[in-house]
Amino acid sequence: MTQLTHTTLDPATVRADQGEARWWFDALAVIKVTGAETGGAMTIVEMTYPRDAEAPLHVHYREDEAFWILEGSATCPFPAALAAQRAHRRAACR
Hints:
- The protein has strands at 20-24, 27-33, 44-48, 65-68, 73-74, 85-86, 90-93.
- The protein is mostly beta strands.
């Protein structure tokens, strides 16, 4: 039988003006927390897109991707999430 291990990490606190900013295609990406800081559990990136921008169609094979849309709307172009997601609604696109 496989025994699961659990590692407890300290909470991360990141101010709104903190993070490593990078341009990614048409969007400003601010890396708030990295996988190294979360024991590989997640990376949190704040993305700011111009109106009508599109991320390139892509697939994640090893990780999930989730969104919290603060303003505007977004459409995930695949069968499980064809409906547009509106501001202040969570969308988990798998």
